[in-house]
Amino acid sequence: MNIKKKLQQLFKNIFQKLFFLIYGRVKYKNNLKKFDYKITPIKKIFLNKNLSFKTSNYLYEIPNGRLYTDIVEHVAIIKNNTIVPEISYQQIRGELKSINFNKVLKTGTPRIIKNFNGNVLSLVQGASGNNYFHFLFDIITKLKLCDQVFSLKQIQYFYVPSITEWQKKIFSLFNIQKEQLIDSKIYRHIKASNLIALDHPWYKRGFVQTEIKNIPIWIVVWLRNFFLKYAKPFKCSDKIFIDRSDSDYSHCKLINNSEIIKNLKKKGFKSYQVSKLNFAKQVFLFNNAKIIVGPHGAAFSNIIFCKKKTKIIEIIPKDHQSKKCQRISKILKFKYIRVKLDRVFNNSFGDMIMNAKRLEKIIKNY
């Protein structure tokens, strides 16, 4: 180890010990007294007066509760320097681990605490809430769960993974203003006079990509019903190719993306970089579509807004485990095809090549 690294490690150790002195060590006890916080079971989700679904979730109210996150994989909710396992979170390399892996048990809470008066609802679970799919299916879904037992009008602050313009617009549809949002990237360690948290709406074990196949029906139905009324009509094609070239991530892109767009244009398709559209237009675009083609990605989350029997052609690497589109298509009765391709590694422009003639044949025979 060189001198620079030794100095960095020394500084880290001193910094850590300092915060141990300030806030104490965080422990895990399986006998934390029940009266230290309130647990309310959520056994049913009511979508309207005629439609409800059984569920099994829990809402926790923790007076003077603390929350610490590394904004990547770990969230620790703490009462009296004891971690609350059911609502803390440690997803490591895509796998949900037991509470013993939560890093605060080893490193403590090495950030200055920020105090908030009032009710604070935690919506964090690491960094995954920044992804469009997880934002809708995990973060926004918690708002519905919470509202079954604790009115959102009674909550002063919402602790969120980050605050972007598109997220703020979606929160505003729930009458949540930007002043109520606490950015976990800025405040990684908070304390609330009443901290409210929920267990995850659907991810309870294993690898997240494989567990997506178990997303509850009520989540898909509720998201669809809630957001459809905000669709904003505009002139668009009903034959859509999802152009993923604008994504920050190179995986699941098509290396020959331009060739595919050019070929499909001859067949009456129009390509869309979905992230360039505001949320209301995204809802309309997918609801208006008759056929959607594209490489796997977060934009496919919007198929929840499609009409029954919409044709969905998802292009995806053979080794990719996500069953998101299959699950949604089964619930909403779409005509779904999964086109599996080999990966082309070590290419910064994407990792799949789609044969244009093959795709044309798939569409023609569909």
Quick summary:
The protein has 10 helices and 15 strands.
Describe this structure in words.
This protein has 366 residues and is of the alpha/beta class. It has 2 domains: 14-225, no CATH class; 232-364, Rossmann fold (3-Layer(aba) Sandwich). It is 28% helix and 26% strand. It has 10 helices and 15 strands. The chain has helices at 3-23, 104-107, 132-147, 165-172, 208-211, 217-228, 257-265, 279-288, 324-332, 356-364; strands at residues 38-48, 51-69, 74-79, 82-83, 89-92, 95-96, 114-122, 157-160, 181-183, 189-198, 239-242, 270-272, 291-295, 311-317, 335-341. Strands 1, 2, 3, 4, 5, 6, 7, 8, 9 and 10 form a 10-stranded mixed beta sheet that branches. The protein has a 5-stranded parallel beta sheet with strand order 12-11-13-14-15, sandwiched between helices. α4 (165-172) links the parallel β8 and β9. The chain is globular.
The shape, in one word, is globular
Order of helices and strands: HEEEEEEHEHEHEEHHEHEHEEHEH
Distance between the termini: 60 Å
**Range of strand content:** 25-35%
Extract low-pLDDT stretches: none
Features:
single chain; 366 residues; alpha/beta; Rossmann fold; 2 domains; five-stranded parallel β-sheet; 10 helices; 15 strands; 28% helix
Topology (SSEs and partners):
Layout (H helix, E strand, L loop, with lengths): L2 H21 L14 E11 L2 E19 L4 E6 L2 E2 L5 E4 L2 E2 L7 H4 L6 E9 L9 H16 L9 E4 L4 H8 L8 E3 L5 E10 L9 H4 L5 H12 L10 E4 L14 H9 L4 E3 L6 H10 L2 E5 L15 E7 L6 H9 L2 E7 L14 H9 L2
Parallel strand pairs: 7-8, 7-10, 8-9, 11-12, 11-13, 13-14, 14-15
Antiparallel strand pairs: 1-2, 2-3, 2-10, 3-4, 3-5, 5-6
